[in-house]
Amino acid sequence: MGGHALLILLSVASLALLPGATPLQPSQAWSLFKLRQLLGDPPVLGTWHNYTDFCYGGDYKTASAFVECYEDSVTQLHIMGDPGAGARPLPATFSIDAFFTTLSRLPDLKVLTLTNLGLWGPLPGKISRLQKLEIVNVSSNYLYGELPRGLSQLGSLQTLVADHNMLGGKLPGWLKDMPLLAVLSLRNNMLQGTLPESLKDMLSLRSLVLASNNLSGNLPDLKNLQVIDMANNALGPKFPRLGRKVASVVLAGNKFSDGLPADMLASCYLLERLDVSGNRFVGPFPAALLSLPSMEYLSIAGNRFTGRLSGNASCGENLRFVDLSSNLLTGSLPGCLLAAPGKSVLFSANCLSTAGDDSQSQHPSPFCRNQALAVGIVPEQGHKKSGAKAGVVAGIVLVGALVVSAAVVFVVRKASAPKARPARRLVENASSAYPSNLLADARYISQTVKLGALGIPAYRSFSLVELEAATDNFQVSSLMGQDAHGQVGTLCFFDIYYVSYSAQLMRLLLLLMVRCTVDG
């Protein structure tokens, strides 16, 4: 008999340890029903009844609304409206202050999801009362104003997502005071201004999503981040510094205008996604990006990248999408982009040889050369040996256009010449299309240079043999003036020669030789 009594006692004790034996605290159950009332009894909470066991009764739970508990206290609350219906703002009687006051009566809350519910108003600072919060998602509502300073008091917060709201002001510098924050996503809000330099001090931050705001200026050091999405802002012009562990970089639709740092990107072996489309990038396209081992998505569309692609270039085995459209690329599309099935490759509006494939139209080669020159890009002429002490960099023939310094040198030379010496006029054989009074007008030079932007060459190139004949093998008697410009390590000399018309070089008037020495 005593043995049976002990067995019954142990059974009762074990039942007391079952989860269902510890009901939710009545005060917290009341708070949940109060939240439903403040939200206007939305359909998504239609399964909540007075007899609902929120912690251990699974019959009320749906994919859009459920509660998780630990013992007799709520630790997770998820209420998600229908994203397809498009949540309207709650009535004017709604008070977001009262809503978060009620939430604060769930002191053990760690995970909070309130999306597509029509919440409106500034995010209250009293959110700091929820000291145990680790994950907060309040996306797709009508929250406005600046981020409250009270967020910095949430020492356990790891993820903050508030996409698709109307939050404004600058991204606050006090975010650095949140030691565990790893994910910050504020996509499609009204943030403005520059990003704080203190972002580089957030050592725990791994994902930063600030796309579709009104941000501007250069990005701070982002070496700690693995996911970066800054699309559709006004950021730039400098490309940010990235760490080797970065996995996704989206900078589309900004104002970046420098070239891509090829060496830095080549070391990003974990990089899976790179989107720099719709910017103002110039310079050579780093073809090595195609062969990064983890790269899956690459888009450089809508820039001014130059370079000659090789059909023999290699591609990474994970590459699935490539968009090279609307650049100034020449050469042939790499065979690895065409042969493998399952790849989506876009390359229209370049100057590539498509080998009979007219599905993506191309410009003629001169178009890309002229456009590159119009934006100040000198096409590559081949690799040069490093450490070269000196060399001729370029010879530029100016037709009908005169640099200001050359004009000054010529005027001074003419004024100091003996009167008995017959004057030699540079405009004796000039084309009637360039009147003499325009040749000395510096404003006309800029107009001539702009012809390149319209696809019309502003000059033509001459061979070295022609130039030697025109200047009598660069005789000193033909030298009109000389100037020098440069920095430490590099010095360029500008030799300006008079070219006689008897050389029959069409309408050539002046020759500007540029010689640069490099101390290696």
UniProtKB/TrEMBL annotation:
It comes from the Eukaryota. The keyword Transmembrane applies. Keywords: Membrane, Signal, Transmembrane, Transmembrane helix. This is Leucine-rich repeat-containing N-terminal plant-type domain-containing protein. The lineage of its organism: Eukaryota, Viridiplantae, Streptophyta, Embryophyta, Tracheophyta. Residues 1-23 form the signal peptide. The chain crosses the membrane at residues 390-412. Gene3D superfamilies: Ribonuclease Inhibitor. The keyword Acyltransferase does not apply. PROSITE patterns: LRR. It comes from Triticum aestivum.
